[in-house]
Specification:
- This protein has one domain.
- It contains nine helices and no strands.
- By secondary structure, the chain is mainly α.
- 88% of the residues lie in helices and 0% in strands.
- The longest helix has 36 residues.
- Helix 4 crosses helix 8.
Length: 249
Amino acid sequence: MDNYSVVISVSTTFVWIAAFAVVAAVVNTIGIVAIVRYREQAERSLPFFMCFAAGVLLTTPLVLAFPTAVTAHPDAGFGALAGFLFLYLSNVVIARYTGEETLAFGVTAAEGIGIHSLVDGVVYTVTFNISLLTGVLAGTGLVVHELAEGAITYLVLLKGSFTERTAAVYAFFVAAATTPLGAFLAYPLVSGLGPRSLGLLLGFVSGVLVYLSAAHLLPEARSYEASHSTVAFLAGVGLALFMVFARGG
């Protein structure tokens, strides 16, 4: 009976991971389609989606994920630092190869987004293996930001001198398809780890989410100088806090 319960629990976790990863890919694809068909309107909406996602993704690690990680493993702070530095250094390396040639700009920017989307898939797997609430909160922020990410990927490929059709197809494979790929590849590895190892991984994920929200999404959104973007950010913070306190902390 105990073994049966474990199988049910693992299966349920995998269903949640698969559902969010697939929804993320669908939302990413919607972002690509929207920017292709309704470019002006979609570009106006991008900063609001990015700010809302940043609010959710910043609140989740600070209020829920990182405290949970430290409880599971006292050295989770080193994991958080590693996660933050991983994305920071990845962006530094990618930035060195952009801006010289238009084609190089599009390709390297798309490569960076592809790596980032792959990491997103790993984040789903780690957070849902910790708890349903942690997974849902992190997943909600990631899914919302996928809409902007799909559109941004398409735009940087256009800047790289790709045709509209080619940019759309490449954007799908680079930004949309990589998220479920990362989730499904990580699941067999992560699901077999013990609580302490998961605590370290959750620390790493917390660092990734903090960097993504504070150093990536918010600066990008503010570059548009859109009115009410602060309201969208605070709405994301409010949603994450509501979900945490509704559960009882």
